[in-house]
Amino acid sequence: MIKAGQIERPKTVLVVDDQEINRDVLEAILEEQYEILFAENGREALEMIRAHQEELSVIMLDLMMPVMNGFEVLQKLREDEELQKIPVIVLTAEREAELRALQAGAADFITKPFDEVEVIQARVGRIIEMSEGRKLISAAERDALSGLYSRNFYNEYASRLFRYHPELRLDAVVLNIEQFHSVNALHGRAFGDEVLRTIGREIRAFLAETEGIAGRMDGDRFGIFCKKQADYPGLLKRFQRELDRRFPDVNIHLRVGVCPWGENTDPVTMTDRARSANSMVRGNYKNPIRIFDEEMQRQEMLKQRLLNDLNRALEEKQLTVFYQPKYDIQCTPPRLSSAEALIRWQHPELGMISPGVFVPIFEGNGLIGLIDNYVWTEAAKQVARWREQFGFTLPVSVNLSRSDMFDMHLEKRLVRLIEENGLEYRDIKLEVTESAYTNNAQAVLDVIRRLRDIGFDIEMDDFGSGYSSLNMLSDMPIDVLKLDMKFISNIAVSETARRLVLLMLDIARYLRVKVVAEGVENEDQLEILQNSGCDLVQGYYFSKPVPPQTFEELIRKEIQTGRTKAE
Fold first, then answer.
1. 101-114, pLDDT tens digit by residue?
2. Cis status of the peptide bond prior to 333, with omega within 30 of 0
């Protein structure tokens, strides 16, 4: 860009012709607009081109010259990746040579004798303008670090390849660097950039050996479309070997996902599938490559089906809230104390779908908030109905997903549910998984503190399943710890598991919070927990999650025995 006060330098034209009269005529025509350089033959021209490569805007090239003719110059330019970017206008008096010159890479031609001054000026100006436009496009076309196509151009060129060359049958490959943000954090951005450059160079070297294209899609993710390879693990080893050679003192690990070519597949779908395969081996250092297969395709189709059907499921109430009772075990016999709300999907065509199938899908696509809101609404209504029906309030715990924490309307939604159903804040307990605290913990803690200040009880779900529990417990505003069921499953047979549970119960007593043990399935587990001071349990020993009508039978049984108790 020319700044104010600066004078733009004239563009430079190289005139290559062995006839002095022709050089003089072209100089007279162009000298007012351009800076003119001259060469008398092809060899001299190449020397001039290499010396002035950066400043040349166009080459005007005679075809018939001694020492080296114009066709030989065109061939030399074509073989050089940088020099071929300089546009060439051929100068000829032979009409039959024009087509051959254009096929050899010339951008245009001017016929001798040079008697149409305005036409020559216009053609030179147009070619320079077109060339500068291509340079601008080229600058956006290539990623500066890797030298590969930028994301948009990669996607566009991939689409063209599939459209115009279906016979190539290209596979999609997605390559990632494992924990690249840690590489940058530990060694600096400049080091990370050099890693990206190294991968780009090796990908370009690979593509020089086969057909295909590649691009840097974003950050540390690279996309490749290439002819089917006999040994994709070998290809991954090739890239990994180059990184190990280039950075021997740093552990940098790659992972790869591949989607093989198939009938009726488009490049966008194939890239998505390769990326899904890539994601499935995240953190798998022993086998960091996955090929998209029929089972993955089945899962992908199911995923898309469920995403498409969610809104209809919410409207038609295909989603049902089940309730699993929690029992106070520090009394004899144990008493029904509260419940946890758990979602189930009775799909009209697919049947009962486990939340273990659909919840991760909606979490990954940012739609889990719709399901959470549905559960909150149904649970609040159910608590109100049971209170009216049975004359007492049975609190219900509902889940808060990590994405809910960043909903700016979260507090208003929950408060409105309480008010609309005439409930107390402690009638709806909020469960937050331990893992939700580990990333951007401060933002999550701020939300939890505000909700607790309003009056909600906060339960930490799956306590012990993460890695930061002990470090963060002092900052966490919680009322209940829920022990992860994998600790409970072995307490009757493993001394280590029993000691861990006792330790966590001691921590809870120190923090003065209650403890709920999940996954209690037998009397031995129950007895150990009772003797250890655990407050509440839930699990198949008492009841699996059941629909509201079945849960009401448990309430009636408690009423008949006089054992009902709110937490």
1. 777 778 787 877 77
2. yes
